[in-house]
Design a protein that fits this description.
Number of strands of chain B: 5
Number of helices of chain A: 3
CATH class of chain B: Alpha Beta
Largest sheet of chain B: 5 strands, parallel
Number of domains of chain B: 1
Order of helices and strands of chain B: EHEHEHEHEH
Strand content of chain B: 15-25%
Radius of gyration of chain A: 15 Å
CATH topology of chain A: Chemotaxis protein chec
Oligomer: heterodimer
Structural class of chain B: alpha/beta
CATH class of chain A: Alpha Beta
Chain lengths: 165, 130
């Protein structure tokens, strides 16, 4: 299955750049796999980009979700590099490693977004073509990422909300 | 040396263990959330040289755990190890009683440095025997 990002979109750079920076930081610091971040696009297909997805919810002054979706082979290799021990899809610790990667990406971006928000603990979904319900009033932007061991994508579907007075 | 690692990610606890094993003879204790950590502290009968605490965890988060520990224990060195890097969060954690703060993602050297700093400060704070 391939990433389904399609047409160019006028991005809110302030919302997307923190995720790009965070991906680079996490993969440089803790995974040590060269990661190329490609041009973000509007995501129209409701199915997640790849077969293994970790979902983090946002609440507070930022609401919505961020999904980090991996090709299965990439997920196994990246989880292995991160954990420092071989991890396959069937291993009990595999979802934990994938979830923690997403947690660090979302957490790092949250700080740079500069709003008071909370993030949920990650949930991991495995399976081809799974669909993740999203906010319908804001676009989902996908940030495609390439590594020597396969591809993944960060799907950002968030918005800032005004604090209640 | 006794170290308690509190993080809902087993992968993260394993990464911390691999790095901190270089400190020498270390006995590691682990908990997946704040409730489990309090149970480990109550039941193991050990004094911990340092406790690493994640912030975002199910059941009981790290900041609540820190406040609970500090209700009865003012001395055990606590290090918050978290993705929560906003200044307000750091201040909240310091007010709650953490001794040091480590932002994820971190390098092995970064983790080791924070733990050594924390151990050194705790050692310096110990009363010197006459």
């Amino acid at each position: 299955m391939s990433a389904t990002a399609t047409k160019p979109y006028t991005l809110d750079v302030k919302l997307i750049l923190p995720f790009i920076n965070s991906v680079k930081s996490v993969f440089t610091t803790m995974v040590k796999v060269n990661t190329e971040v490609c041009k973000p696009c509007l995501k129209e297909d409701p199915a997640s980009s790849y077969d293994v997805s970790s979902i983090i919810g946002f609440s507070g002054q930022i609401v919505g979700s961020v999904v980090v979706s991996f090709q299965q082979s990439a997920a196994e290799r990246l989880a292995t590099e991160f954990a420092g021990t071989p991890l396959k899809l069937s291993d009990a610790d595999f979802p934990d490693a994938i979830g923690e990667l997403a947690n660090m990406i979302a957490g790092g971006a949250k700080t740079q977004l500069g709003s008071l928000a909370s993030i949920t603990v990650p949930s991991v979904v495995i399976g081809s073509g799974h669909v993740i319900a999203r906010l319908s009033d804001v676009p989902c932007i996908v940030i495609p990422c390439r590594t020597p061991v396969g591809n993944f994508a960060v799907e950002v579907n968030i918005k800032k909300v005004q604090p209640k007075s | 040396m006794n170290i308690l690692l509190v993080d809902d990610s087993k992968t993260m606890r394993n990464i911390q263990k691999k790095t901190l094993a270089a400190l020498g003879e270390v006995q590691f204790f682990e908990a997946g959330d704040g409730v489990e950590a309090l149970s480990v502290i109550a039941s193991c009968g050990q004094k911990f040289d340092v406790v690493l605490v994640d912030w975002n965890m199910p059941n009981m988060d790290g900041i609540t755990l820190v406040r609970k520990i500090r209700e009865t224990d003012k001395s055990t060195p606590l290090v918050m190890a978290t993705t929560e890097a906003e200044k307000t969060r750091v201040i909240d954690a310091l007010k709650a009683g953490v001794n040091n703060y480590l932002i994820k993602p971190f390098t092995p050297d970064g983790l080791m440095e924070k733990v050594k700093q924390t151990l050194a400060k705790a050692g310096a704070a110990q009363p010197v025997a006459a």
